[in-house]
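Researcher: Can you fold this with nicotinamide-adenine-dinucleotide in place?
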Amino acid sequence: MGKRIIVTGGSGKAGQYVIDYLLDQGHQVLNLDLTPLPAPFSDRVHTIRVDLADSGQVYSAFTSHFKLTEPFREPLDLLPDALIHLAGYSRNMIVPDNETFRGNALSTYNVIEAACRLGIKKIVTASSVTVYGVSYAEGDVDYPSFPVHEEVDTNPMDTYAISKVCGERIARGFARRFGTDNYVLRIGPVVAPHEYKGTVFDSYIKTPEKWAAHGWGYTDARDLGQMCDLAVQKDGLKFQIFNAVNDEITNYTPSAAGFLARVCPDVPHTREMDARETPCTNKKMKEVLGFRQNHPWQTYYET
Ligand SMILES: NC(=O)c1ccc[n+]([C@@H]2O[C@H](COP(=O)([O-])OP(=O)(O)OC[C@H]3O[C@@H](n4cnc5c(N)ncnc54)[C@H](O)[C@@H]3O)[C@@H](O)[C@H]2O)c1
């Protein structure tokens, strides 16, 4: 059955596709963002302009109608069933570091606090594989071990990833306090449909040894929609973290483990990997939530 879902940051690169997917599954969606949703996505969903770093705006928007009608016809007391929190600065150096931290950590605190206090039972929060500490390190550092699963230590040195680690801790603490389902998605580099060709993706394939920073993985924006939907549908898991990436390593190696042993000779392997398993493994996403990718990158590179 369709649910009422608030998406934050739905006007952004990932959010547009996430909202599109959720609407296609029959959900009702309200988008909360500082900026408008571009067409054609904007025809399908209402956006309220909200600064999530302002807690009062968050509470007010969370208790809003989903649709602008004249007159209003929805009951006033309908709570959302779920919150999907995507909003934030999506990398370092969009703004100065202190603002990256303030914006991301405070917005995440505000939305999780308001959701829990208002009684929203399912909260899905966007984190990032950058929390594993390689992407924005000062210089080359190694992953702790392969495959990089959700229990691996997160010890980043950059502000963006530190803000994401803080968001994960907020989700964890509030799940413990309120008994809600707070699921964290550690998203990989997001790829929109038009971004497979003539972009950095070509370089993933041609010079894969350069791409430790992206974990030799990616997250298709449409498949991220499926991941969010699965997280909304699966109840009762309390606090959980999922690597939210697609299935396969982003180059043509026949052996992911062999490739990683060559480019990262000092990193231990803690189990055998599937032949072309993505290094920041998505096994938990597949086994616990039932994710089945619809958009393998090879579709765009068939000769
Ligand atoms: N793009 C990636 O490769 C990537 C990778 C891993 C994780 N993520 C995470 O996924 C989420 C979505 O990423 P994206 O690429 O769509 O980012 P994006 O920058 O395209 O979109 C983020 C949206 O959040 C909104 N926003 C920012 N601060 C806000 C605030 N205070 N109040 C209301 N809205 C605010 C922006 O207006 C924007 O529309 C982010 O949390 C990001 O950190 C992204």
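Model: Folded with nicotinamide-adenine-dinucleotide in place. The chain has one domain: 4-301.
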